[in-house]
Amino acid sequence: MRKSTILLGTYLFCLLCTVEANTQNKGSAFDNKNIDSQWVKSLYRRGSPTTYYKSKNELQYIGMPIGGIMAGGVYLGGDGRLWLWDIFNENQAGIEPKMIPWGTIEENDVYIRSIDGACYVEPARNICPLQQGFILKLEYNGIIIYKTLEEKDWDEIAFEATYPIGTIHYIDKSLPVEFILQAYSPFIPLDEDNSALPATIMSFTLTNKGNTDVKASLLGYLENKTGIRSADHASCLRLNRMVESNGMVSVVESLDVLKKGNNVQNVQILNVNDSVFRTKPDFGTMCISALNASSMAYCDIEPDNPAGVFRTFQQARKLKPIQEPLIGAVQTDLNVAPDETATADFVISWYFPNLTLFPEKIKDSGRYYQNKFSSALEVAQYIQNNFDYLSSTSELWMQTWQESTLPHWFLERTLLTVNTLATTNCHRFSSGRFWAWEGVGACAGTCTHVWQYAQAVGRLFPALERDCRERTDLHIAMQEDGGIIFRAELENRPAIDGQAGTVLRCYREHQMSANDEFLKRNWSQIKKAIRFIIKQDKNGDGMEDTPMENTLDAIWDGEIAWIVGLCISAVRAGQAMAEEVGDMDFAAICSDYVQKGSKNMDRYLFDGEYYVHRPDKDKGRTKLGSYNTCHIDQVLGQAWAHQLGLGYIQNKQNVLSVLQSLWKYNYMPDVGPYIESHRGGRPYALSGDGGLIMNTNPRNEIKPYGEDAGWQLGYFHECMTGFEYQVAAHMIAEGMTAEGLVLIRSIHDRYHAAKRNPFNEIECSDHYARAMASYGAFITACGYEYHG
Question: Directed axis angle between helix 652-661 and helix 721-733, to 10°?
Answer without folding.
Answer: 130
